C-alpha cells in the first residue's frame, strides 16, 4: 500500500506539472503565419500628407506621436530584440490610398505610417486605423490612421498612443490577442492601455527573440480581422483561424514518465 500511495503521489505531481506547462497564450500572428522583418532594427517612415480630420496639423505632429508611442510601448521590452526608429517624413502621399496600396509604396525593410480617407479601407464608422505586414515582394509594413472621420481625433493623447502602438504591432507581424488586458486585444472596450501585458511581451519576443529564444507556450494564426482598431490584413474580414503550438518536447517527456509509472503500477498490482 505504501508503494501504491507513493506512485499515486508522483503521478499527480507530474500531472500538475503538465497542466502548468499547457497554459495557452492568446497572442496571434499575421495572416501569413510567422512573418517578421529579417532585421530587428526597423525604420519607420511618415507620409507627407496632413491628417487634419484625424487631428494632425502637419505630418511632423504625427511623427512626434509615433516616436512617443514606440518609446512608451514596443522599444521597452527587454526580452524582445525589436528596435523601432522613426527616420523621416517622406514624399509619399497616402491621403486616398488603401492599405494594400500603402504597402506597395513602402520601401523594403521599412514601415510606412500615414492616414487615409479611402472609403474602401475605412468603410465602417469608428474604425481608428488598419495595419499589416507584407512579404510578397520584400518585407515591408504599413498602417493608416482613419482620416475619413473624427474617430481618432476624438481620442485623448493616451488612447492615441495606444492605438498607434497597436497598429504598429500589426505592421511588424502581430495579429490580435485573446487577452483583454493586452495592447493587441482586438477591441478598445473603453480601456486606456497604459502598459503592455505579458501576452504583448511574449508576442514581440516570439517574433524578435534575442540570442536565447523565449518559450511562449501556444499561439494562434489568423487569416484576417476587422474591429474598432482595424484589421491586420489587406482583406479586413472577420474570419479567424486558430492553430495551437505546444511545447512538444516537455509534453512528450512528462507523458512518457506518466505512462511508465502507470505500466509499472499495473504490473505491481498483478
- Low-confidence segments, given as residue ranges, are 10-23, 217-249
Radius of gyration: 22 Å
- Known CATH architecture of the largest domain: 3-Layer(aba) Sandwich
How many helical stretches? Answer: 6
Structural class: alpha/beta
| Overall morphology | elongated
What's the helix-strand series?
A: HEEHEHEEEHHEH
Specify the CATH class of the largest domain.
Answer: Alpha Beta
The quaternary state of the protein chains shown equals single chain
Mean pLDDT: 77
For this structure, what is the CATH homologous superfamily of the largest domain? Collagenase (Catalytic Domain)
If strands are numbered along the chain, what order do they take across the biggest sheet?
3-2-4-6-5
Strand content: 5-15%
Number of structural units classed as domains:
2
- Give the fraction of residues assigned to helices: 25-40%
| CATH topology description of the largest domain | Collagenase (Catalytic Domain)
The CA-CA distance between the termini, in Å, is: 14 Å
Task: Explain briefly what this protein structure is.
The protein contains 6 helices and 7 strands.
Amino acid at each position: 500500500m505504501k508503494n501504491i500511495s507513493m506512485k499515486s503521489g508522483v503521478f499527480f505531481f507530474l500531472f500538475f506539472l503538465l497542466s502548468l506547462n499547457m497554459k495557452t497564450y492568446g497572442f496571434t500572428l499575421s495572416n501569413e503565419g510567422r512573418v517578421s522583418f529579417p532585421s530587428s532594427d526597423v525604420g519607420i517612415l511618415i507620409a507627407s500628407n496632413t491628417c487634419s480630420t484625424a487631428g494632425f496639423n502637419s505630418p511632423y505632429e504625427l511623427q512626434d506621436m509615433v516616436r512617443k508611442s514606440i518609446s512608451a510601448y514596443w522599444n521597452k521590452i527587454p526580452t524582445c530584440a525589436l528596435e523601432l526608429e522613426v527616420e523621416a517624413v517622406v514624399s509619399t502621399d497616402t491621403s486616398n490610398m488603401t492599405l494594400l496600396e500603402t504597402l506597395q509604396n513602402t520601401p523594403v525593410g521599412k514601415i510606412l505610417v500615414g492616414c487615409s480617407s479611402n472609403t474602401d479601407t475605412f468603410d465602417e464608422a469608428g474604425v481608428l486605423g488598419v495595419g499589416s505586414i507584407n512579404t510578397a515582394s520584400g518585407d515591408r509594413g504599413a498602417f493608416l490612421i482613419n482620416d475619413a472621420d473624427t474617430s481618432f481625433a476624438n481620442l485623448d493623447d493616451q488612447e492615441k498612443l495606444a492605438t498607434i502602438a497597436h497598429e504598429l504591432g500589426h505592421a511588424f507581424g502581430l495579429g490580435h490577442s485573446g487577452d483583454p488586458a493586452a495592447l493587441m486585444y482586438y477591441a478598445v472596450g473603453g480601456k486606456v492601455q497604459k502598459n503592455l501585458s505579458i501576452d504583448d511581451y511574449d508576442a514581440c519576443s516570439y517574433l524578435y527573440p534575442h540570442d536565447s529564444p523565449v518559450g511562449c507556450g501556444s499561439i494562434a494564426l489568423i487569416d484576417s480581422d476587422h474591429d474598432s482598431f482595424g484589421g491586420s490584413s489587406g482583406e479586413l474580414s472577420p474570419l479567424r483561424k486558430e492553430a495551437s503550438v505546444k511545447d512538444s518536447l516537455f509534453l512528450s517527456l512528462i507523458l512518457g514518465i506518466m505512462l511508465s509509472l502507470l505500466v509499472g503500477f499495473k504490473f505491481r498490482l498483478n
